[in-house]
Amino acid sequence: MSEDLGTILNKLSAQYQVNIVFDAQHVNDLKIENFEPKSTIEENLDVLLQSTNLTYKKLGAGTYAIKPRSTSTNNEILTNAILAEIKVYGTIKDAETSEPLIGANVLQMGTNNGTVSDIDGVFQLSVDEDAILEVSYIGYVSKEIKVSGQGPYEVYLSRNTNLMEEVIVVGYGSQRKSDLTGAISRIAEEELKQLPTTGLEQAIQGRSAGVYITQNSGAPGGAMSIRIRGTGSTLTSEPLYVVDGIPIVNDNSGTSATFESDGGGQYTNALTTINPNDIESVEILKDASASAIYGARAANGVVIITTKKGKEGQRNVSYESYIGLQQLERSIPVMNLRQYAEYINDVNVGTVEEFENLDLLGEGTNWQDVIFRNAFTHNHQFSITGGDAQTRFSFNGGLHQKDGIVEGSDFTRHSGKINVDHSYNDNIKVGVNILASKTKENVTFNDNSNGVIYTALLTPPMVPARTLDGSYGAPPSGNNIVLTFDNPLANALEVEDVNRKTRLLASFYSEIEFTPWLKYRMEVATDILYTNHNTFWPAFERGTQSRKSRVRRNNSNSLYWINKHLLTYQNTFSEKHKVTLLGGFEAQEGKYEWIYATRDNLPTNELKELNLGDAGTQVVQGGSGHWALLSYFGRLNYGYDDRYLLTGTLRADGSSRFGSNNKFGLFPSLAFAWRISNEAFLDDIEILDNFKLRLGYGAVGNQEIGLYSFAANLQPINVVIGDQLVTGFAPDNIANEDVKWESSVQTNLGVDIGFYNNRLELILDLYNKSSRDMLLPAILPATAGGLNPPFINIGEMRNSGVEFTLNTQNFVGKFNWKSSFNLSVNRNEVIDLGSTGVLTGIIQRVPVTRTVEGMPIGQYYGHQVEGIFRNAAEIAEAPFQEIGTRAGDIKFKDLNEDGVIDDLDKTFIGSPHPDFTINLINDINYRNFDLNIFIRGVYGNEVYNMLRRDLAGTGAWHNQSVDIIDRWSVDNPDGSEPRSNGNDPNSNRRVSDRFVEDGSYLKLQNLSIGYTIPNDVLGVSGISHFRIYLSGQNLITLTNYSGYDPEIGSFNQNPLISGVDNGRFPVARSYTFGLNLNF
Description:
The strands form 13 sheets. The chain has a 22-stranded antiparallel β-barrel. A five-stranded mixed beta sheet has the order 15-20-21-18-19. The model is unreliable at 71-84 and 251-266 (pLDDT under 50). It is mainly β. Among the domains are: 1-73, 3-Layer(bab) Sandwich (Phage tail protein beta-alpha-beta fold), CATH 3.55.50; 865-905, no CATH class. The chain is 8% helix and 47% strand.
């Protein structure tokens, strides 16, 4: 079979994602007989051109020029076919970076007369005086130039981010974007670099429809919650992360191997051990047809992280750095000393000492000014990349240091990365990837009733932060007003809570290409993590308060390994049938061990060794764990004539976490896509570039439960036999050999549409996700004797929603403006909880949320407020509340109308789930200037403000919100807040809709402006690219919420407790100045 040489060259250009330029008159009449593709682009060109009078020259990374063997190489690589009247010249550059584009095509429209730009982006071409030039480059939007004189012409080409030939990582391989059948979002390096962040989740927040990311804590290194298409389980709804092929779970397990919860009430983020600057791209697999290849670990979606690799071409040395300032965006108004004194005199008349001479009192201590600070951050990244056709390499090193806006908090990360890929010959490749990091986090205890932020808001302004001698202040001895709180500043600075992590992610692969259509790949990888979490509470005596010293050591180490074997068959039949078949086998194992020990009453605060504590106060715990997963999987991709696409996946997982009755699970998926735009009946619609319909169905699983839940476990007990204390063992739980995976059955219907050379792109997805066989603890009778219940598969939950994305190239040229808008709507419903019936979310010993059938998960549950009792007559006419109910107390609604306010009158009073989320990103470039504007919005969610529950609780022992100034009193019977009281006899602080607030917000998430210094200014300095920029994050938040920030995620990653503000570390407003250098 023979083919035109030009046709083959175009196919190779698309297949290898390279730019092959040639003059059509040189290849028009050349036929190639029985061409068999080779493994590399150079080998293919050698074979194709060996029997012709043509040769090729590589102009730079990814660009090849075909020319006659007799033609010399100069700036005019392709010889003009027609003697024209004038010679035009100019430069072709990237519109975003202003870097020259090597090998860009310049063609006189309507002719074969053309050339390509040289290594400096310069072109010369003789053309007719009235010619129109078409300038094009792979991966960029083409441009037409009307000739008016010789020049010089400065041509700026914009990247085509919607290019249909973009390659997407899909798990165990990659596909062209145009061939995708599932719902996958891609976030490229250019987008990730727009936000200077500590962790990955902040960089991808808001950039993908259907992915709802909230900040659990604004502390440096603090965790975030990621929900892909809603909350899918009562255990964990965090997705599976895959870093260069290594699976990582970022929930209550610190790594793939551990299953450890940080008991401090402030969950830290395992992903902060990964440097965001090392990441090249992030793919988010949202539906089952895309994620089923990961089987038992993919129920909550999959986030694939691909780090940077070495590339063939000129060696590149780069340095990136930024410094930043962070500050509290806004404070919460609380009483000053004069206001607090008036309040205390009111609430405690005749019972405790009163303030005298109020006119002499000043502002007192503003505790928020004391504990919050302007915090600094700096980041440095150095990299060297390069290589040739045989060996490619990349070396990266980074330092990130960030102080928190709360005194005593900071985060430091040292990271390094090495990547080497080597081709032994045309058929064998090997590679190694090593990512190492060391982090240190000074944790300021928050997110609880005795946290620094919580106590700072409640500590009265009469207590000084420090005394005249510099020591920490405290209530004077004998004072009855402040009884419970330690000095918040002392708590922030004296308590040493240091969490150190050392992590190594390493992988090795070898790949053998048996034929151009069959290859084998073996991968082995490991994830090693050492964690040392050490805490010391010093002893003190201050006024009415004192504490004995305590030291705690909480250390763990984990080892995870994975071994994969992949066989891939890829071929095309009759030019229309494209088949890719993947088969694989995978084994993975995780081991961990941990030890926890505390002792109290150390002899001095200077010696913090565990062995110096009182042995009688000793608590020692420890243990180890082990799990394994054995998997077989396959995937078929079939395409007919670039119109009809089919993807089928099947995976079988066997997990050690489940009993012998359900050791293996089977996870299938099937997806179909129809590229309607390639049908002949749409050929006349010239503005339509892409119209694809997608339909997918599949099942995935969730195995994230305890390691030995299926077995009957023993626990140690101490018993007295005679006069001896003997350690023995007793049953701990009831076994359930039938326990199995949680499964998620998902359906997705999507459509992709592109107009005007894909300058306008619309993506719409409708989905339904049903989580079945949810694992819940069984309800045991009292005769079970206190044994822990087994997990049983009885629950079901459903998420359904809509995702919409609109990408536009508004202007292209010297002024380049592109926009991306996405909108997400998700509805959650609990279908079945079996015999469990009700799940309660408890925080600070207070039941705040309730989960029942027919409602979304984690709804706020409490009483409804009808107002305030204005007088005794209203109390007499109302249902009975409490014996101590008085005028000025809260009036609660008697829902069941039985005349008594009790637990039977509780109802659902709010939801943490938004009605919808929106995100709008604008990128604008003009000449060497660039501007990024990122706006993020959430609407319809509510926050349970637990802080306000105490700040407006009208108690006698702590500070209050300024709102309480307008409290009910005899002199102010129309006050908006309840009366002051000492011990809340009416339970005004009970969980009610009084503390549920609208959590909707609109944020200016990022605003950055940059300038790239022109190359002619850089001259011969050796610097090829120099950009400086200034950016700000969280600059403006429009919201009705009265707390620090309405963005409240899950407490300790618990899906039952979302949106509860119990003194979370607020997200800071930050300003950053940075630079990027390439040499």
